[in-house]
Each structure stands twice: as structure tokens, then as C-alpha cells.
TrEMBL record:
Similarity field: Belongs to the peptidase S8 family.
Keyword Hydrolase: yes
PANTHER family for this protein: CEREVISIN-RELATED, PEPTIDASE S8
GO MF annotation, one: serine-type endopeptidase activity
Protein name: Type VII secretion-associated serine protease mycosin
GO annotation terms (biological process): proteolysis
Amino acid sequence: MRRILTGSGIAVMCVCVVVPASAEPPPGRLPDPDCAVVVPASPADVPTPDDVPESLAVAHRFATGAGVRVAVIDTGITPHPRLPPVIPGGDLVVVGERRPEDPQLPEGAVDDCDAHGTIVAGILAARPSPGDGFVGVAPGVELISIRQTSNRRAAESVGAGGNLASLTDAVNLALDRGARVINISLVSCLPPGDADRVDARGLDAALDRAEENGTVIVAAAGNVDERCPVDSTVLPAHRPTVVAVSALEDAHTLAGYSVPGPGPLLSAPGRVPLALSPDGTGFAVGLAESSGPRAFEGTSFSAPVVSGTAALLMELHPTATAAGIRARLAGAVDPATGAVDPVDAVTHLPADYRGTPHPVTVTAPVAASSGVRARTGVTVTILLCVIGTMLTVRYTRLFRLRRTGGNPGQ
């Protein structure tokens, strides 16, 4: 089929939804007035050390993602004391710094002006602290940041990123830097009828390369809005080798804004009550916007839960293929909602599991001693003799009664 649309012209956007935040906007200042302003957390918003989610506390007894490289393709990640050291993987937003062969790693990858990539990274990889109960799904991973899009950077950078061509470059950059898991909390929504007209061959080739490399790609399923109708084709989420993640409204309900996908249903919470602040210190509970505070919510924030879980599985099964990790994820979900629980994933045995047989020695019960057997035999013999004597006496009396006509005196 003739393809008349090029991938470079298809926009890629972050996937958040607008919901009220619970705190007032901050009166403070930001170093860069062009960047998003976050609502700082109050002490009451921060969980205590006793409030670490049980699922994560138990899962981390098995794995933390240690040694697994995870790339976050997003708006950049601001370094934070609670994150692993952020490896700058490339900046595809600033003009002139887009080419993968550029030996210089641009600083933009470690700058999150949009307050999005840092939120994603915290969900995925925040390290624990003895002072609170906040922790990411895989705090032991190595974290790579690739800035692929931004809505807030300089006007001259518009068009340099945030499309299928730059997304393709970002995936290849992540693979070049050794990523075994790639989180993409970005979507490109194609209306019905346009999907077959878009030239996505470059992206598909990058996804194929990831599959051959054993790298798992996890992407947000997308949020339904005027730019992304419910029947849209969502890239990269709707590609067969990509794990598409929907959002949960609560433990038992899928969020109504999640775009349905063609593959297996996997989901995770979409609402983020507490996040690492993109200012580089402390926590945030939402964005401060002119219309009022907005909480962090959307399939963008569901995807890193699954990416972190994939990293835990990668640590436990370092030789597993990408398809094998996807199968383990899908095999451990809640059958009704597709919810991914890290502890269920790391402790789940696949249906084709065949354990290694181990010999078991069974000790026979100790036989009774000969003295015990002898005493038991004597007791039984005496008992039988007594019973026999009683029966003999009884039948003898009956016989005599019959001979005398029932008169015992004769």
C-alpha cells in the first residue's frame, strides 16, 4: 500500500489527564520561568517508613532490578537524591543534537522542564530512605534518560523532536546504550483510516532490533481525548512486541480514559498521589497551572510500574528473551483487570514450569521390640481364654436347662 504520510510529521505527546490536585499551588519560584511549576508535598502527604506498600516490600526481597539498564524515553529526567545516577542518553529536542552518532551526550537529557519524565522515573526507580515509605518498583536499576519531546523548550527547537522519527532515534539510542527495558510514556495517536498511511517502517525496524536484542519495550496505552479518540491506533503501544499498559481507576476498575489495545490487557494505577519533584529535591503532588492544581494522572504513570516489574524479572531471569519476560508479565496479572502486581510477577511460576526432581529419603517407622510383641501376645491369649471359658459355661448351662425341661432343680 502506498504510504503518503511520513513518520516525521506525526506528533508524539505525553499522556496525562487533567484532574484536580489536593494541595494549593506553591508561592515559591523556579530557576527557569518557562518550566512547569509543581505543587510541593506537605509532610502529611509523605508516607511513613511503616507505610511501604507490601507488594514492593516483599518483591524487593527477591529482586530490585540490580544490574538492569532501563531507558526512559520522555521529557528528560532531573537528577534527584532519591534516584540512581541518571545516565544522559541523548537529547532529541534541541536542534543539532539529534543524531545518534554525535559523540557528545547533551545535557538536555537530564533536564525535565515539563515535569513528566522525572515523575515517571520516580515511580520506576526511586530509592528507599529510612525517613519515609516512598520507593520505586525497581530501585536497583541503572537509569538512562533520553529526552524525546518537550512542550516547554525554546521555540527554535519545535519540530526537532516529538515525532515518530525522533522516537525511532530514541529507541535506537537506548539500545546503543545497553538498555534491557525501555519505558515510553509517550503516544502517537492515529485516527481510524490513517494508520495504514503512515510510514512507520523506521520505528518498526527499531522495535524489531529491540526484540532481537532481548529488550522489553513498555509503553503507555494512551488517554482518550479529542486528539486521541477511543478507536485510535496508538504508536508504539499497539505494536505486537510492545507491552501496552492501561490505567487503573482503583484496585477493581479500569480507568475510563484508557485507550483499549489489541493485545493482552495489562494495567497499573494511573493516579500518582506522591512523586519525586522535577525541581531536583523533595516531593510533589501535582502541577500548579493557571486553572488550578492538577494531579499527576494518566497511562503515562501506569507504564513505569510495569517497566519496573519487567526489570525485576530481568534480574531474576537474565537470559530470558523479551517474549519470555512479556509472557511472565501477562501470566501473573489479575484476570479481571490485567493489574500487574510486582510480587505476583516475581513469584509466579509459568504454566509450563517443570521443577528439577530431588530425591527424598523416607525413614521407615521404628519396629516394636520383641519384648513388647511378647507381652502383647500373652495379653491377647489370656483375653481369648477368658472369653472362651465364659462362652463354654454359658452354653453348658443352656444345654442342661433344655434336658431338664427348664427346671434347674432336677
